[in-house]
Amino acid sequence: MNPRTDIEVLTEAEAKAELADLANQLAAANDAYHREDAPQISDAEYDALKQRNAAIEARFPQLVREDSPSLQVGAVPLAGFGKITHSIPMLSLANAFDSDDIREFDTSVRKFLGLGPEADLSYTAEPKIDGLSLSLRYENGKLIEAATRGDGRVGENVTANARTIDDIPTELDDAPKVLEVRGEVYMSHADFEALNKRQAARSEKTFANPRNAAAGSLRQLDAGITKSRPLRFFAYAWGSVSDPLATTQMAAIERLRKLGFRTNPATRLCSGPAEMLANYEEIEEQRATLGYDIDGVVYKVNDLGLQGRLGFRSTTPRWAIAHKFPAELAWTTLEGIDIQVGRTGALSPVARLSPVTVGGVVVSNATLHNEDYIAGLDSKGGEIRGGKDIRVGDWVQVYRAGDVIPKVADVDLAKRPEDSKPYDFPTKCPECGSEAPREPGDAVRRCSGGLICPAQAVEKLKHFVSRAAFDIDGLGAKQVEQFYSDGWIAEPADIFTLQSRYGDGLQQLKNREGWGEKSAKALFDAIEDKRKIPLRRFLFGLGIRHVGEAASNLIALHYGEWAILDQAMRDAAPKRGAAWDDLLGIDGVGVVMAGSLVGAFAQEAERASIERLAAELEILPATRSDVTGSPVAGKTVVFTGALELMTRAEAKARAERLGAKVAGSVSAKTDILIAGPRAGSKATKAAELGIEILDEAAWLALLDGA
Ligand code: IVH
Questions:
Q1: Domain boundary residue among 367, 396, 415?
Q2: Low-confidence residues of the chain, pLDDT below 50?
Q3: Which residue of 57, 211, 236 sits with most ligand 1 atoms within 8 Å of its CB, as the best mutation to test the pocket?
Q4: What pLDDT sits at residue 3?
Q5: Is 205 a catalytic residue?
């Protein structure tokens, strides 16, 4: 099997794509094994895939799929539940790990809202339940739908199962006409242990932890099984509501409680970071005696009006944060160090450990981050672990922070074997032999082989076909590896010439192992289907370092069309001038990302590869079609002068949320200029061009109700 990217350096988008791919591979393997009685992969390979899946899920719990292989009970994968599109996406929370992060959270909220340090700003604090989230839709007081989170946008219809949970009322008195209640389904420690005993006594599958047990129990096609499992539910949030529940978070939770939901009794109101941190300590002390798993404390801005103004980033609200509990620890032997090469060439050292249980999970791999980390240095050359290096043969401390991939934290020098030697970090790529230099300021060594490095090329191709990129049905990681190693494809463009290059590609493919007439035809159809591709997917599919899914979307919306984006990248290549400034003007694009993007387009081989790909495709212009009913959707607006009713960041975020494009300078394409006091040349220019000019109040009036 080809090396995989070290889980620690996976981006969220990569992780998501890989989880999708692993779900496919494991489902196919299950199918082959159970339905066709013809296993395609060995048990060991199967286990390795499952473990990788679990490790990625451990680091990105918010990405756990509803069809996750780790949630599958019994051997045969569950056939589908119906799908439900959430009226308002179910998002995850940004994480904080220490008190500085909490103070920074408060500072950034104030900054966004333009509030000084003295202004009152209170937060709720409540335990973060370690279960799975569920959205319950009530219409006219009746429970009509229950959906799991799924990918945040579309979840699974588990209505019948939810109805069997005692904590979930099926009828509400005095509720808004439409009310979506959101919260966490979980299992108590006592119920979990009793369930596992029952399961073991019947020789049925036992669960690794209460969270898995809750997920496995909710996701049963036979609601009768769910009914027999002791699930519980805490309400802590809401989706669509026809009438606001209250004006504060605290009061809204109280309203939910009065409507008949269980809400967490440990929920408190805090006046600021000091009280939030005190509350964190209090909840941490209660942790062991609560009787159910929690993995941190969630803080939310109490004023719902302010929550509305703060709004959301691409996957998390600006008005809330999760303060996670620290790690669990164990000691074991470091048996070896493997080097994995990722999509962007990063050489990532992975510790091979003598298996050890950490917080209920068996760990046999852990990240060692990079060369400096092994040597006992931080990114600035300062000492970590008192300067102790890490060597093969060492007795090392491993930790997991709840949902984070295991790390090697410390080493016990007293137990170091006498003949041990410092680890020699490779300076050449173990996959292709190219030099792997370290650029100034970069913590990692990167293989310089580019597309000639098989590891990079394959990882790039896997990324290209992944769910959030080109999402080609029937072309997953496994097929990409196979086609690559057989010399069928070396870069993305090759996928689209595959059929023609092999004369009759269909004939050739169907004769290959694992392929039949039907699957081969389906693959070529799926490839043809993706010749028309939205600009944002195209851009994300290129797999350019630092340019993730959300950024690709923003960049695509900004430029609109491929030809314009392409030209802009050429113009911005010197990293100065109008095109460069324009790129940096996109909210969410910083210097590092912009540099990486422009650099990729300027690099000769990469540019040629992009051009070959573009020549095969029809790249569809980006649209803001997802924002409907907004008076400014699709409009280009420019802010100038002083804003008095909100900060620039808030104004920009709000405009973008409503589907407007916020530009930095006035041109013929500008639709509206919002001019505050002391507006200068931009206002003059807009007046010359006959562009609509609004003051801040008129702008807000225009948005009112949107
Ligand atoms: S609020 C817009 N409150 O943690 C975000 N989430 O890591 C609304 N969770 O997906 C979520 N306890 O499944 C919230 N008291 C709590 C929570 C909580 C557990 C889960 C939830 C969410 C995940 C994010």
A1: 415
A2: 1-2, 34-37, 73-79
A3: 236
A4: 52
A5: no
